[in-house]
Specification:
Layout lengths: L2 H14 L8 E2 L1 H8 L3 H13 L3 E3 L5 E3 L4 H25 L2 H15 L13 H13 L3 H19 L2 H17 L7 H17 L3 H21 L11
Length: about 240
């Protein structure tokens, strides 16, 4: 793998998982030292990220992580809500046993570390929020975000529509970058919602898979809305 490609993917992952927040300055020398490379691969990586709109050039002063607007997030969730539920329905019809096993493994991995005995059951928001802080403190946020992306990617691939998946992946990158704004408690909710999607797909319940995916995406958007960051409700009001 070219050095520039490695730096590109590492930076993109850090931006996608909000390890690098919008507005963060990206200084070439710091990045060179971090990855132990010269300026050339760093500059190439930054140019690739700039072409994707993930970093912004500061005239004569390097780059910074691109800002994301409310409108960006609204549009991204709209795209996901339009496309991912029907993709989940198709996945429920076409998914192989191997695909279902992969989804089950992801749900199991995202469950590890959550409060014992309360997975899938009612638990106080305080208990879950405290546990999530511990998870994030243990630097599991990046792992969890990656598993979440894998879960949705596998479902999209199982549906077999590459064009739809291209749009979804672009939209998901935007929504991932806004996920740090969601108050504590999202891991519990998302894990329960993923479990419902998996159950529908493994049961070959197309309508149920479509509904579970739509509920999941609306729920995630609603948590941004109730946090006061989004000005448009999930229902458009």
């Amino acid at each position: 793998m070219k050095l520039a490609t490695k730096v590109y993917w590492d930076l993109k992952r850090e931006i996608a998982t909000s390890e690098l927040l919008p507005g963060t300055s990206l200084h070439e020398l710091d990045l060179c030292e971090k990855w132990g490379v010269s300026r050339t691969p760093v500059r190439e990586a930054l140019k690739m990220l700039a072409a994707e709109g993930l970093v912004e050039s500061r005239r004569g002063n390097g780059y910074s992580v691109a800002q994301i607007s409310r409108q960006d997030v609204i549009e991204a969730y709209q795209v996901r809500i339009w496309l991912e539920p029907p993709l989940a329905a198709v996945a429920a019809r076409l998914a192989t046993a191997e695909v279902i096993a992969k989804l089950g493994s992801i749900v199991e991995q995202t469950t590890v570390g959550l409060p014992e005995g309360v997975v899938g059951k009612a638990a106080s928001e305080t208990e879950w929020a405290l546990q999530e802080e511990l998870l994030l403190a243990r630097e599991k946020r990046q792992l969890w975000t990656g598993l979440d992306a894998d879960f949705h990617t596998i479902i999209g691939q199982a549906a077999g529509n590459s064009l739809a998946n291209t749009f979804v992946q672009h939209a998901r990158l935007v929504t991932q970058r806004a996920s740090y704004l969601i108050p504590p408690g999202r891991l519990r909710h998302s894990n329960d919602e993923h479990h419902a999607i998996l159950l529908a797909i493994s049961s070959r319940d197309e309508k149920g898979a479509e509904g579970a995916m739509r509920d999941h995406l609306n729920s995630t958007y609603r948590r941004l809305y109730t946090a006061g960051w989004m000005e448009v409700s999930p229902d458009g009001g």
